[in-house]
Amino acid sequence: MGRMNLDENTKVITLLASQTVTADADGTGIDVSGYDDCFIIANVGALTGTSPTLDINFATSDAVGGTYTDITGAAFTQITDSANDSQLTFGRIDLRTILDPATSESWLRVELDIGGTSPTLEIGIVAILSNTSDVPTNAQTLDFNV
Q1: Domain-embedded: residue 143
Q2: What angle (nearest 5°) sits at the alpha carbon of residue 116, between those of residues 114 and 122?
Q3: Is the pTM of this model over 0.70?
Q4: Pairing mode of beta strands 30-31, 107-130
Q5: Rounded distance, CA 91 to CA 86, Å?
Q6: pLDDT per residue as tens digits for the range 4-43
């Protein structure tokens, strides 16, 4: 594996700015055309409320404001009421196998589904886009790898 120039081959984008969330929410779509991989880091604060749950899913579309379709398998393990103050969760989406060139899908967004009674949490999610196949991955450290 050769030396990789991170400035030319990667881009860090906020999928969901750090915020307090109390209900389902969708991030704004980001254009991922021209990239091969999308590494996702979710920073989730303590989840409070009665029987709270959080599902973090990802979807694609052919336009930023278009209809989004869920990506099968691109979801973090459900987060439930926990004693943890915060946790980092990691995932990877192989954009070469997910995006459909025939439909011009190039937009990706995060979708949060929150359950329980009066759930509240702090969350922020970033994506690291890469257009090189030289980025090493270790499936043991990823919550999902599609």
Answers
A1: no
A2: 50
A3: yes
A4: antiparallel
A5: 17
A6: 555 668 899 999 999 999 999 999 999 998 888 999 999 9
Is residue 116 in a domain? yes
**Hey, what amino acid is at 3?**
R
Tokens (6 digits) for 127: 């994506």
Contact, 69 vs 60, CB < 8 A? Answer: yes
In a domain, 46, yes or no: yes
Domain with 91 in it: what CATH number? 2.60.120.1110
Q: Which two tokens stand for residue 72?
A: 């099968």
Q: Which domain holds residue 18?
A: 10-133
Report which residue type is found at 140.
Answer: Q
Cα dist from 64 to 17, 28, 30, 67, 87, whole Å:
17, 7, 7, 9, 29
In a domain, residue 62? The reply is: yes
Question: How many domains, in total, are found in the chain?
Answer: 1
In single-letter form, the type of residue at position 41 comes to I
Q: Which two tokens stand for residue 142?
A: 């990823």
